[in-house]
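Standup notes, structure subgroup. Blocker cleared on the iron/sulfur cluster input:
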Amino acid sequence: MSRVDLYGYKITGLQVAYYIVCKRKLWLFTHGLGMEKFSDYVTMGKLISEESFKRKKPKEVEIGESARIDFLKIGDEVVVHEVKKSKKLEEAHIWQVKYYIWVLKREGVNCKSGVIHYPRAMRKIDVEFNEEDERRIEEAIEKMREIIEMEKPPPVVKKGYCRKCAYYDFCFV
Ligand code: SF4
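Run returned:
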């Protein structure tokens, strides 16, 4: 399967997270300003993900280009697991996981839940997925389409997260 392709747009879990965090960030990233790879915060997040679960050595799971899931637990039901650096963007993490569940369900996988691990805080949260979530994911994809189609990025809306964003200089300097 290629990326989830609705209305001609291919959407990844990262884009869903950016949609929740900042519509402008979604636009900048989608239009090729991929500055995330230069961000220390993103690099640190990846290191935490790798270091914290070294002993278990979970395998990343790729579903086409739509989902790169940290690991799956497979029993009677499949459970999505994601490892994150900080709880500050918890809502975005939750919707990223819900999106992965939605992608798996579309592929016919029996998956209704996920777990987000915050090893630094020694916490984890459970994520459930229901019919309302399905409707909200599809609605979000439609809104993402509208944002991506805009000729210019949405205006800067200053928020607490901006200083940690890879696009900070682009937006504010
Ligand atoms: S710096 Fe702030 S406004 Fe600019 S893309 Fe990042 S989160 Fe959005």
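Discussed briefly. The mean pLDDT is 84.
Next: hand off to the docking folks.
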